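Whiteboard transcription, Tuesday session. T.W. wrote the structure tokens on the left side:
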């Protein structure tokens, strides 16, 4: 479950910050570089993310990786978003019910 949330966050961040470096993505997500690397490799293995390498010069410092969502990645991000929203709506309904119950109980105790 935690991995799905991490994967969802990575997919959203890649989409919102196109062309971001791995370091920038890790910083934005609050992940270590190792954790982000693990997530990116897993997403790449699942076919959800393409990792494109661009080398403008022979100097290794100019070597940049670019992360792109695949069509499958966009579809998975949508599925994960729907699952996330369902989970949050369920939590909201449970909290609302709990608050209403406490309110009714406290009203009965006052009478």
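and on the right, the sequence the group agreed on:
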């Amino acid at each position: 479950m935690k991995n799905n949330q991490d994967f969802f966050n990575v997919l959203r961040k890649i989409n919102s910050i196109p062309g971001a470096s791995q370091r920038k993505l890790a910083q934005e997500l609050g992940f270590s570089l190792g954790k982000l690397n693990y997530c990116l490799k897993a997403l790449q293995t699942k076919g959800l993310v393409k990792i494109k390498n661009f080398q403008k010069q022979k100097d290794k410092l100019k070597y940049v990786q670019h992360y792109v969502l695949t069509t499958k990645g966009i579809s998975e991000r949508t599925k994960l978003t729907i699952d996330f929203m369902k989970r949050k709506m369920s939590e909201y309904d449970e909290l609302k019910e709990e608050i209403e119950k406490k309110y009714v109980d406290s009203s009965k105790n006052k009478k």
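Someone added at the bottom: Residues 71-110 form the longest helix (40 residues).
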